[in-house]
Amino acid sequence: MSKYDIIVVGSGPGGYVTAIRASQLGFKTAIVEKENLGGVCLNWGCIPTKALLKSAQVFEYLKHAEDYGLSVKEYDKDFGAVVKRSRGVAEGMSKGVQFLMKKNKIDVINGFGKIKSGKKVEVTGSDDKKTEYQADHIIIATGARSRELPSLPQDGKKVIGYREAMNLPEQPKKLIVVGSGAIGIEFAYFYNAMGTEVTVVEYLPNIVPVEDEDVSKQLERSFKKAGVKVMTSAEVTKVDTSGKGVKATIKTKKGEEVLEADIVLSAVGIKTNIENIGLEDVGIATDRDKILVNDYYQTNIPGYYAIGDVTPGQALAHVASAEGILCVEKIAGMHVEALDYGNIPGCTYCMPEVASVGLTEKQAREKGYEIKVGKFPFSASGKAKASGTPDGFVKVIFDAKYGEWLGCHMIGAGVTDMIAEAVVARKLETTGHEVLKAVHPHPTMSEAVMEAVADAYDEVIHL
Ligand SMILES: Cc1cc2nc3c(=O)[nH]c(=O)nc-3n(C[C@H](O)[C@H](O)[C@H](O)COP(=O)(O)OP(=O)(O)OC[C@H]3O[C@@H](n4cnc5c(N)ncnc54)[C@H](O)[C@@H]3O)c2cc1C
């Protein structure tokens, strides 16, 4: 039986990053994967969606070329080519992980991994052959898949999840997106920009419900302006797929309404991959569908760990990677600081983009903080005006007493690349005054951060 120091089960951004860090630290490492290397993120999540969104954005530029003084006589979209490009990008990224595994001397074991007591992993290959491997430490990183609602069973054709949504053979004319978290909103933006008639149905009163309410409202305005129908405080109670398309019954405060569409995309969250992987045999504790871990990702059974979407905490690629690195560094005996889940940035890559970190204004008030709030609209930013992207703003929230930067919320072009400033500043426990005195380059969208902070301290210049 092959013996390793560390075996990682699952090769998403949690698993493969963990394996690389383990190898860097001198551990003999293997990774088990039943599909393509790279997990949901590289194959069916973060990366292929961003490729689709880029095509949509280029298409939007073409549509609005005249706004920039340009005339594009003929342009069209080729939906199949857009999807093909996205799949190509994903494939390339997965090959990149293959290269990284080789470079870091990590053994890749193809097949379905099941953990066993005695620190063993049984891998069933495509030929159904079972092989056992032994390790001192076993890290579970099996991730998650699209969650199904009982009222919205997915048939993969008319009622679909995210995998099908990014790989449709034909562009739907009408699409209903159920759920307005990052995944639902990104697909809504993509399909609307490509010319599909899109309706977003959200159960809660606001779209992107985890975001600050001002951001949710602004995004709703932008989406409505772009032609997306937005239904909030609304619920799909029934779908009828017996006809040519889908008839979805939607319950709102005003009563019931039946909407017709070609396809319904269910984007109501994720379901962890914890079935049949041996958790019960080994005795690993779970709660509400997640594997329970401590600050260092140790499960209740010594020698077994879990990281990424399969554990509690934000289901994001950068969280999965950070958890994996921390987990193996702890195994290596390094002094590690537990992850601060309050300082994790979250991004939605529609247009305008949304990015945030820390507390919303409502959360800060609920926690009893006395706060200073600053806001700077991109309509007052020279760079945003020059770029033709004046929609959105930066909003900052500070603790009035000690100057702690409690939260930062952005909506606008390119803000997903700007939020890291707030993450680093918060990590360094920077106060508003320090951000204010850190000179930002002109003209950039990032000046809006400095100006929003200035606004919080009544020193704003360009308003
Ligand atoms: C459409 C979409 C867009 C997204 N966009 C973003 C984004 O922009 N930014 C962001 O941060 N996050 C995004 N996410 C979330 C992100 O993809 C996940 O948080 C991330 O992939 C989780 O990483 P993971 O390593 O925990 O699991 P996964 O990426 O799910 O990887 C788990 C891997 O384990 C394998 N596996 C499962 N069970 C077994 C088994 N028994 N044996 C062997 N292999 C197994 C699976 O095949 C898979 O490859 C998006 C998700 C989706 C669906």
UniProtKB/TrEMBL annotation:
Limits of the Pyridine nucleotide-disulphide oxidoreductase dimerisation domain: 344-452
Coiled coil: none
InterPro entries documented for this protein: Class-I_Pyr_Nuc-Dis_Oxidored, FAD/NAD-bd_sf, FAD/NAD-binding_dom, FAD/NAD-linked_Rdtase_dimer_sf, Lipoamide_DH, Pyr_nuc-diS_OxRdtase, Pyr_nucl-diS_OxRdtase_dimer, Pyr_OxRdtase_I_AS
GO cellular component, one term: cytoplasm
Disulfide bonds: C41-C46
Keyword field contains Lipoprotein: no
Active-site residues, as the UniProt record annotates them: H442 (proton acceptor)
Recorded catalytic activity of this chain's protein: N(6)-[(R)-dihydrolipoyl]-L-lysyl-[protein] + NAD(+) = N(6)-[(R)-lipoyl]-L-lysyl-[protein] + NADH + H(+)
Main location: cytoplasm
EC nos: 1.8.1.4
Note on how the cofactor is bound: Binds 1 FAD per subunit.
Residues binding NAD(+), per UniProt: G179, S180, G181, A182, I183, G184, I185, E186, E202, G269
GO biological process: 2-oxoglutarate metabolic process
Similarity section: Belongs to the class-I pyridine nucleotide-disulfide oxidoreductase family.
Note: The active site is a redox-active disulfide bond.
Protein name per UniProt: Dihydrolipoyl dehydrogenase
Species of the source: Sinomicrobium oceani
Source species taxonomy: Bacteria, Pseudomonadati, Bacteroidota, Flavobacteriia, Flavobacteriales
